[in-house]
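Preliminary data (for renewal application), nicotinamide-adenine-dinucleotide complex.
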Amino acid sequence: MTQPPQTPVTSSPLGGATGARAAAHTPGSAPSSSQDASPDTSPLAPADLPVAVIGAGAMGTGIAQVAAQAGHPVVLVDSQPGAAQRAVERLGDTFSRLVARGKVAREDADATLARITTHTTSDMTTVPPVALVVEAVVEQIDVKRVIFRQLEEAQSPTTVLATNTSSLSIDAITGVATSGHDAALHGGTSPALAHPGRVIGLHFFNPPPLMRLVEVVAGAASDPGVLEDASALMRAWGKTPVRCASTPGFIVNRVARPFYGEAQRMVEEGLVDPATLDLTLRRAGFRMGPMELTDLIGQDVNLAVGESVWHQTGQDPRYAPTAYQRDLVRAGRLGRKTGHGVFRYDDSGAALDASPDEALADRLVGGPVRTDPVARTLAMLVNEGVDLVHRGEASAEDVDTAMRLGTNYPKGPFEWLEEIGARTVRAQLEELDAAYPGGRYRPSEAL
Ligand SMILES: NC(=O)c1ccc[n+]([C@@H]2O[C@H](COP(=O)([O-])OP(=O)(O)OC[C@H]3O[C@@H](n4cnc5c(N)ncnc54)[C@H](O)[C@@H]3O)[C@@H](O)[C@H]2O)c1
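Predicted structure:
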């Protein structure tokens, strides 16, 4: 795509995003004030830059809503006939409810909805030129690779291409593939993208309009300027961006693993029953205990995330799935959605058999770390956070922000580290490591 002469040239490829905006601007429409403003902010920040969201499922629809509410014209793309249109209709219903409750003004709701158009295709070369694409289709590497290759072919080389993947590596999307369906289609080796610098992760949390956190994920080739501009854009959308490397689980889905894993191990071992365990963690400030939370998330969904991190880390024992959770899934005890998970639920979603033993909770907390659900969980959460920062994958501040906003933890791992002290955490982990050898409880070198 040729850049119009008035487009400011910047060192970041996002300079071209401004070009995409100009190219896609509706002919004859009045230029907005943000177009006239001097280009001293992120080239992605002007709210009239066109955005495409690929995938009109739960996440894509929410992301389209957020972008449109921030003022962007948004094209919502889905391969299933009628899917994008139905998503916009549902959004209309949501806005009508918000208007009725006085949460949104009718004219703002109408203006937001008017900014969203739909496009049905599985050929991404037909997506109109935009400044930013956010892909939110099924979590399948081959599907995503094809989409990014087609986008690369048709969009300006400077259009920022983002994926909302929760578990796939950015490099697996942009790099050469020698296995899988996509590689087979290319005779054994599927080529890398020509411009991987503009490919990043923008990992929104569910539901995107309500969750403030966005993990801005850097692949090995992602351009630092693009990451910077995308972070600025997320702030302009009212989000709180954190930066991280494209490693298994990014920040939230990795650091949170022991919150579930320690609970399941303690119950599996018979050290505590699920309801009492949940009580100890709620008393420690967590909004929900790990057992009720995994029942809410879905045991199958939670297990899949854990297994993905475990496999991607070469089956690191820190992330090994538990027989306890696998058995729940095998038995179809998936949680609230099946009426039975760790606990049984009635039709209103209330747990029927979650009666904690308060006296037991009192005895366990403050006792030896092996049988204290709170100390054991916090030591492991701190260890994960410290190790992630030690590996250079994110900053301590971003880890704390991500865990508070992404999981609703009362504090971040580094705040707990400050409170508990590195020496105590290390000693607790060494005690656990002695009780359960094998590497799961190895303390981070940085502790
Ligand atoms: N659901 C979550 O809690 C959550 C949270 C964060 C990130 N994510 C990630 O977001 C992505 C989407 O998740 P979701 O829960 O919204 O999925 P979903 O199944 O609700 O929606 C996916 C949509 O993509 C469409 N689609 C599939 N293949 C397509 C193609 N080739 N071209 C165009 N459209 C296609 C489907 O028709 C469907 O409408 C996944 O990568 C997922 O890992 C999900």
